[in-house]
Amino acid sequence: MLKNRIIPCLDVKNGRVVKGINFVELKDAGDPVEQAKIYSDGGADEICFLDITASNENRETILDIVRKTAKECFVPLTVGGGVRNIQNITDLLLAGADKVSINTAVVKDINFVKEASKKFGSQCIVVAIDAKKISDKKWNVFTHGGRNKTEIDAVEFAKNVEKNGAGEILLTSMDKDGTKSGYDVDLLKSITECTNIPVIASGGVGTLDHLYDGIVKGGASAVLAASIFHYGEFKIKEAKEYLNSKNVSVRL
Amino acid sequence: MNVTIVDYQSGNISSVINSFTEVAKGKVNLEVTSDIKKIKSSDKIVLPGQGSFKSCVDSLNKINGLVDTLKDFAIINKKPLLGICVGLQMFADIGYEEAETKGLSWIPGKVSKIDNQNGKFKLPHIGWNEIEIQKESKIFKDIKNKSHMYFVHSYEFIPEDKSVISATTDYSSKIVCSIERDNLFGTQFHPEKSDKIGLKIIENFIKLK
Lengths: 252, 209
Hints:
The complex is a heterodimer of chains A (about 250) and B (about 210).
Chain A: E1 5-13, E2 16-17, H1 32-41, E3 47-51, H2 59-70, E4 77-80, H3 86-95, E5 99-102, H4 104-108, H5 111-120, E6 125-135, E7 138-143, E8 148-153, H6 154-163, E9 168-173, H7 185-194, E10 199-202, H8 208-217, E11 222-225, H9 227-230, H10 236-245
Parallel strand pairs in A: 1-3, 1-11, 3-4, 4-5, 5-6, 6-9, 9-10, 10-11
Antiparallel strand pairs in A: 1-2, 6-7, 7-8
Chain B: E1 2-6, H1 14-24, E2 29-33, H2 36-40, E3 44-47, H3 53-62, H4 66-76, E4 81-84, H5 86-89, E5 94-95, E6 101-102, E7 109-113, E8 125-133, E9 148-153, E10 155-159, E11 165-171, E12 173-181, E13 184-187, H6 195-207
Parallel strand pairs in B: 1-2, 1-3, 3-4, 4-13, 5-7
Antiparallel strand pairs in B: 5-6, 7-10, 8-9, 8-11, 11-12, 12-13
Helix pairs in contact in B: 1-6
């Protein structure tokens, strides 16, 4: 039976992890490579890096991190943030990323996902959708890390990226992100019910029950979380044991 | 001992290189190449494959003499070869991804899209799934039945002769996820991404006598 995945996400800015600071066992709290290794040794099913470096000139920094991490972590590695063209994807994959997450560039031009999945295969193309609720059961797509609003309906957009070759959807609720009040389960459900590719839930996890809700109520294939793992509130293993105790199948 | 990873410009093989490099450290000499001479003189071959069946077969065919060299190595001389993901799928006679495409015809069978039972099962089949070992396999030495391996695929290899199947996994039906015939090995899952247990499979392959 296919297991539900737990994916810790590391936000990286100018080569340093910006959220994770509370690992007692860390020598260098800001080192993304060291943190990724701890997650991978702790049973993470995948590792996700989100490069939130503002400037474009710093692409080499994230590539170097990916290169070093890929030599030490032997679980899948997804990298996103600032991916604008085919060359960016090529560079990340050559550095050792297994999947690349794309966002703004796809909203601008849906053909980008088509081109990317044709060139590299759907298996490594993740489309990140940042969605915000605008009325009951209606969400719009946002870009540039949630700063810019578009008029695109999130559910329609999800169907469209699937049609154009996306292998997975990484769905973040802008309303819930950072609130620790749980995923937007309605949003998740609306999208998992109308697509046939795996959806990764993101944004809002504060307790282990939220992970359960994302999978069981929202229909997500994987759950992504940042702060509950970074600040040491829970270990990956605890999250998995909890889900397992509630009959959610995970890789133990 | 020389182990060669065939680099035929198809998809992302960085993870395969990283994992084999980790396991090979100080044990064997690892080459990543499409050079026919080097492939011929190596002791073991790894044939990775990402992207579609058609794109992988097309890329193999683009390199002059590569298909014949691989066939001499694995089928005529029966030297160890491990195909990973589409690398395994290409052993078949025919594949249906993108367009109907002829495979290497090393193991009779076809590669078809996984039946998702009208959307009940999401595709691609992405993530960790348990393998059910069907027969003793040299690359499964010290690997427990129901170990978790990492999968990413939408198509499955259906061999005619079921005796080549060394493991299956459960996703909509029993999907063939590992085969072994003589010294020909293939895994649908990615040992290079399957954590320590995956590295163990790579080690088993590297250590084959």
